[in-house]
């Protein structure tokens, strides 16, 4: 297994699983700059899946999304 940590174009990273972190919110999910750009590249599916599952960025809670070829990564773990 190879693990790389980078900052930059999230949607352009070629990998099996793109792991994206987001800070905790008290009441609703608010995406930061790079994560919002990734969500736009995924046609809103990242935020939609997170909201459906009640994701607020709390520790130990994750959302897994298959990208269906919309970005170079096969899936996103958020």
Give a verbal description of the structure.
The chain is α+β, with helices and mostly antiparallel strands and 78 residues long. The protein has helices at residues 33-41, 45-52, and strands at residues 17-19, 64-66, 75-77. Strands 1-3-2 form a three-stranded mixed beta sheet, covered by helices on one side.
Structural class: alpha+beta
Please count the helical segments: 2
**What are the segments in which pLDDT stays under 50 over at least 5 consecutive residues?**
none
The outline comes out as: globular
First-to-last CA distance: 19 Å
> What is the N-to-C succession of helices and strands?
EHHEE
Strand content: 5-15%
**Secondary structure: helix percent:** 10-25%
Look at the structure and give the mean pLDDT. Answer: 84
Radius of gyration using CA atoms only: 12 Å
Question: Biggest sheet: strands, sense, closure?
Answer: 3 strands, mixed
β-strand number: 3
Q: What is the element layout, followed by pairings?
A:
Blueprint (H helix, E strand, L loop, with lengths): L16 E3 L13 H9 L3 H8 L11 E3 L8 E3 L1
Parallel strand pairs: 1-3
Antiparallel strand pairs: 2-3
Task: Using brief descriptors, characterize the structure shown.
globular, 78 residues, 3-stranded mixed beta sheet
Short description:
With 78 residues, the chain is an alpha+beta fold. It is built from two helices and three strands; from the N terminus they run βααββ. It is globular.
């Amino acid at each position: 297994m190879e693990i790389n940590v980078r900052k930059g174009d999230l949607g352009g990273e070629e990998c099996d699983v793109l792991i994206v972190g987001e800070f905790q919110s008290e009441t609703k999910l608010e995406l930061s700059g790079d994560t919002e750009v990734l969500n736009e590249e995924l046609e809103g599916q990242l935020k939609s899946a997170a909201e459906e599952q009640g994701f607020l960025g709390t520790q130990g809670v994750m959302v897994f999304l298959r990208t269906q070829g919309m970005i170079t990564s096969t899936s996103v773990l958020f």
